[in-house]
Amino acid sequence: MNIVIAGGTGFIGKAIVNTFAKEGNHVYVLTRQKHADMENITFIPWLSAASHPENKLRHRSIDAMINLAGDPINQGRWTKRKKEAILQSRIRATQEMIRIVGHVEQKPKAFINASAIGYYGYANEQTFTETSPSLGNSFPSRVCQRWEEEAKKMEAFHIRTIIARIGVVMGNNGGALAKMILPYRFFVGGTVGTGRQWISWIHMEDLIGLIRLIIENEEINGPINLTAPHPVTMRELGQAIGTTLNRPHWFPVPEWLMKLVFGEMSGFLLKGQKVLPEKALQHQYPFRFSRIEAALSNLKTPPSP
C-alpha cells in the first residue's frame, strides 16, 4: 500500500509509520523538518511557501491519507495564545491535505483524520459511543468539533472519510503513560483527584491495528472510537500501574493542586469520559489488549525489535 501521513514524526505517527514501512508498505510523511529518506519511507516538505507536496504525489496511487498533525494539546498551560495555536494548527493541516487532494490525479481511497475522545466532553455518569452527541462543555471538545467539521469537507471529493476519535494511547517511548508512571518509580504514586474519573485508553498496537482495519475495510466511514473495550477509572489505572511496577499506590494528589499547577488543562486528569469502541466491535476487531493489566504488563517488558 501507499500511505500519506501528516504528523508522522510524533508519538503516534512515528509508530504508525515504522509499522507500516516494516510491513513493506510505502509511507510518504508530510513534515516541516528535514529528514533523510529511509527504506519504504519518503519525507515530503509541507506547510511552507516553498513546499509543493502535491507535485511529488500527483501521479501516485494512494491507498490512504492520514492526518495526525497539530500542536500538542497536553503540553503547557492553555493560555489564549496556546489555545489558538492548538486549534489553528489542526485546521490548517486539514485544509492543506484537502488542497493537496484537489491537485492529485488519483484521489486517495480513504482519508483518516484524527480527532480525540475529548470530542464528547467531560462526563463521568455517561457512556459514549460513536453515535453519542458532543456535550461541548470543554476546550478539547470544541477543538475536536471544529477539526471534524473541517475534515468532513474531504467528502466533497467522494472519498471515504473516517474520523478517528483517539483515546489515551498507552505506548513506550512517550505519550501519557511515561508521565503517569514517573511518580510510581519514585514511590509516590497515587490517586489523582477523586479517582472516579474515567480513562478510556488504548494500547498502541491496537491503535495501529485499528488503523489497518479502517484502511482495508471499505465499509468503515464516519467517526470511530479508537479505545479499548474496557475503560478504567483513574483509581483503577493507578492501582494497576502500582501492581505492574511493584510500587505502592498511596500518595493522593488533590484537585486543587492539579488546578494550581496546570490550570484549565488539569481537566484532562481530573475529568474524563467513558468511551466504548462500538464500531470496532461491530466489525469484529480482535483487540489484543482489552484489559489495562495486560497492556501495562506488555509495555513494561516490550518485545525485542
UniProtKB/TrEMBL annotation:
Domain NAD-dependent epimerase/dehydratase intervals: 3-222
Pfam families per UniProt: DUF1731, Epimerase
Signal peptide from the UniProt entry: none
Membrane-crossing segments per the record: none
Record's protein name: TIGR01777 family protein
Domain DUF1731 stretches: 253-299
Family, similarity comment: Belongs to the NAD(P)-dependent epimerase/dehydratase family. SDR39U1 subfamily.
